[in-house]
Amino acid sequence: NPDNVNSNSTSDSETEEQEGMPDSSEESDSEDYSDWADDAPASSRPKPKPEPQPLTLAGTLRRPASLRQIKPRRRLVSSDDDEGEGDATDNEDETSESKPETSKKVRKKTATSEKKVAQANGKKLPERFRPPEWLTDVMPHKAPYVPQIGDEIVYFRQGHELYVQAVKRNRIYDIYMRSQPWRKMNLRDQEVARIDDITFENHPPRLCCLKLSLMNPAEKCPESFTVKYHDMADVIDFIILKQNYDQAMHYDWKPGDRFRSAIDKAWWLGTIKAQKPLNPNFPDSMFQCFLVKWDNGEKEHMSPWDFEPIDNERLPEEEGGSVDITPEERMAMMYVPEPHEWSEYGMDYDCERIARGLGRIMEL
């Protein structure tokens, strides 16, 4: 029956269309087909070619839309819905993960706001916001040393290492040993240098960052390096003015000499007992190379620039006691500027001009 043949061929065609590829055996039978399809029997007529299937980007067959499963969209539900609670939880997790952590700028802004609020309310600033006393004291002191650009100084590696150890031991701030100058260059026990630049890190504690240029560098040694530090209790200065160092070397202190030393606001007297390096690894260092005995019986190590000659007219009333330092004596210990450090008009004129300028600024 031709109708049955046509229906069978149509159903076969639909089946092959769904499968996506024709049968290979049927392709071999169609090689003897005539170009005149109408003259051929119905059973030998070529079957219609299946429609081409859509390809994906990878070149593979893609299922027709009618056969693909459509993935339902995630629906945001409220807390009152009984269904879809897991989807809502997943969405909340994604939202929380997408939130960035608080940036340094935000933390810094918060700290600044806290500082401004304290100032506006007339409250005393928290201790961590206040600059250290050694940088803000208006009274001149020989120690601790306050650096200034252009100063010629003597740097003691041994003292710097003791400072780093104290910072790490007390966990004052993060410090990296690889960044220390003696790890990157061949530093001698003590180096003469000049301060070329000063910057400050304001996070507690307030650190002073010095760029030092060596005035007589060792062979194959960089000419400059950086030191970061702050004044600490019970940690001896490892940077001093070269002028103070030269004066101490000129006096030629030795065991048996009597001396006085300025501690806080008083003179204390003692006797030098011995001289030897504080650490055998630094044999050429003058840093705390003297063992002294105070008149009160205590002993400790000190450096030659800590000593001052005794004034026999100003002695303590009792042995082991102290004598107050007068303003004149304090000024005598201060740095003596060289003539070229001031203008042609002299130090007094320049100081008065600077004071007038500061006064005008404070009136603004």
Write up this protein:
The chain has 364 residues and is α+β, with helices and mostly antiparallel strands. Among the domains are: 121 residues, no CATH class; 76 residues, Roll (SH3 type barrels), CATH 2.30.30; 30 residues. The chain has ten helices and ten strands. Strands 4-3-2-1-5 form a five-stranded antiparallel β-sheet.
- Count of beta strands: 10
Rg: 44 Å
**How many helices?**
10
Helical content stands at 25-40%
Largest sheet: 5 strands, antiparallel
H/E element sequence: HHHHHEHHEEEEHEEEEEHH
Structure class: alpha+beta
- How much of the sequence lies in strands comes to 15-25%
Overall residue-averaged pLDDT value: 76
Distance between the termini: 114 Å
- The gross shape turns out to be globular
Low-confidence segments, ≥5 residues, pLDDT <50?
1-41, 54-109
> Strands of the largest sheet, in order across it?
4-3-2-1-5
Annotate the secondary structure layout.
Elements: H1 2-19, H2 24-29, H3 85-98, H4 104-120, H5 133-136, E1 152-156, H6 157-170, H7 181-184, E2 190-201, E3 207-214, E4 224-229, E5 239-241, H8 242-251, E6 258-263, E7 266-275, E8 290-294, E9 299-302, E10 322-324, H9 327-332, H10 347-363
Antiparallel strand pairs: 1-2, 1-5, 2-3, 3-4, 6-7, 7-8, 7-10, 8-9
